[in-house]
Automatic annotation (TrEMBL):
<dbReference type="InterPro" id="IPR050707">
    <property type="entry name" value="HTH_MetabolicPath_Reg"/>
</dbReference>
<dbReference type="Pfam" id="PF09339">
    <property type="entry name" value="HTH_IclR"/>
</dbReference>
<dbReference type="GO" id="GO:0003677">
    <property type="term" value="F:DNA binding"/>
</dbReference>
<feature type="domain" description="HTH iclR-type">
    <location>
        <begin position="10"/>
        <end position="74"/>
    </location>
</feature>
<dbReference type="InterPro" id="IPR036388">
    <property type="entry name" value="WH-like_DNA-bd_sf"/>
</dbReference>
<dbReference type="Pfam" id="PF01614">
    <property type="entry name" value="IclR_C"/>
</dbReference>
<dbReference type="GO" id="GO:0045892">
    <property type="term" value="P:negative regulation of DNA-templated transcription"/>
</dbReference>
<keyword id="KW-0805">Transcription regulation</keyword>
<feature type="domain" description="IclR-ED">
    <location>
        <begin position="75"/>
        <end position="259"/>
    </location>
</feature>
<protein>
    <submittedName>
        <fullName>Transcriptional regulator, IclR family</fullName>
    </submittedName>
</protein>
<dbReference type="InterPro" id="IPR014757">
    <property type="entry name" value="Tscrpt_reg_IclR_C"/>
</dbReference>
<dbReference type="InterPro" id="IPR029016">
    <property type="entry name" value="GAF-like_dom_sf"/>
</dbReference>
<dbReference type="InterPro" id="IPR005471">
    <property type="entry name" value="Tscrpt_reg_IclR_N"/>
</dbReference>
<keyword id="KW-0804">Transcription</keyword>
<dbReference type="InterPro" id="IPR036390">
    <property type="entry name" value="WH_DNA-bd_sf"/>
</dbReference>
<dbReference type="GO" id="GO:0003700">
    <property type="term" value="F:DNA-binding transcription factor activity"/>
</dbReference>
<keyword id="KW-0238">DNA-binding</keyword>
Length: 261
């Protein structure tokens, strides 16, 4: 049955999803108290407590008995894993990600684009002493990450306007692109080269390079990225050592998805 925008939403479900959004959008905080959630959601504390109790009974929320605050439960993890497992691309890509790590000795991510965000689905970590903190499970802005830009480069002008027109492009570092015209110009260059670089645009001292994975229509369905500390990720290493390896294995994955380019 198609979704109808004129159907009145069920308020309790709406509030439960808003509650999950609080946890999803919190960058560093993992637990919230009832009072804090009440203020954030604009709901009476009794209503918030009932929501939490209901979700806790199904395992989607759990209470930290030491702090009495609430956090996401194992049910959310299981649901997310079910979604990831449905994406056969992960099973397909994993062996190639392992080969990339063996050859470049840096960590490899795979992620998908969801409107203006990138969701990191999996990582194969390199056996390095100094490594980048894993982003798996996080969704981060696409416009300042290599894995996001590698896919945004194939979006139409209309799609980019829909995502970013009127939106504020937050500055994460001094190198973050914060204007839509500059982003569009940058993405045209990414599209021509068919790879993207994050030059400390999202996190300082972290550089990444990414290649899109395409389906049988030539449409990016995800992307692979190699990430590492800026001190190890020189321009030469990224374009001369890592890029050829990324290209080779992204093409192998794309071929298995029917891409003939």
């Amino acid at each position: 049955m198609p979704y109808k925008t004129n159907v009145k939403p069920i308020q309790s479900v709406h509030h439960a999803l808003e509650l999950f959004e609080v946890f999803r959008t919190a960058e560093k905080k993992e637990e919230f108290g009832v009072t804090e959630l009440s203020k954030t959601l604009g709901l009476h504390k009794n209503n918030v407590f009932r929501l939490l109790a209901t979700l806790e009974s199904r395992g989607y929320i759990e209470q930290n008995m030491n702090t009495e605050n609430y956090r996401l439960g194992i049910g959310i993890f299981n649901l997310g894993q079910k979604f990831i497992n449905k994406l056969g691309i992960l099973k397909l890509a994993k062996p190639f990600m392992e080969k990339i790590v063996e050859q470049v000795n840096e960590s490899v991510y795979i992620g998908i684009l969801r409107e203006g965000s990138v969701i990191y689905l999996d990582i194969v970590e390199a056996p390095q002493t100094v490594r980048i903190v894993s982003r798996v499970g996080r969704d981060v802005p696409a416009y300042c990450t290599a894995i996001g830009k590698a896919q945004l480069a194939y979006a139409s002008e209309e799609e980019l306007n829909k995502i970013y027109m009127g939106a504020r492009l937050r500055r994460y570092t001094d190198k973050t692109i914060t204007s839509l015209p500059a982003l569009k110009k940058h993405l045209r260059d990414v599209g021509e080269k068919d790879y993207a670089i994050d030059d400390e645009e999202f996190e300082e001292r972290v550089r990444c390079i990414a290649i899109p994975i395409k389906d049988y229509l030539g449409v990016p369905v995800s992307a692979l990225s190699v990430s590492g500390p800026a001190c190890r990720m020189s321009d030469e290493k990224m374009t001369e050592e890592i890029l050829p390896v990324l290209k080779k294995y992204s093409r192998e994955i794309s071929k298995r998805l029917g891409f003939q380019g």
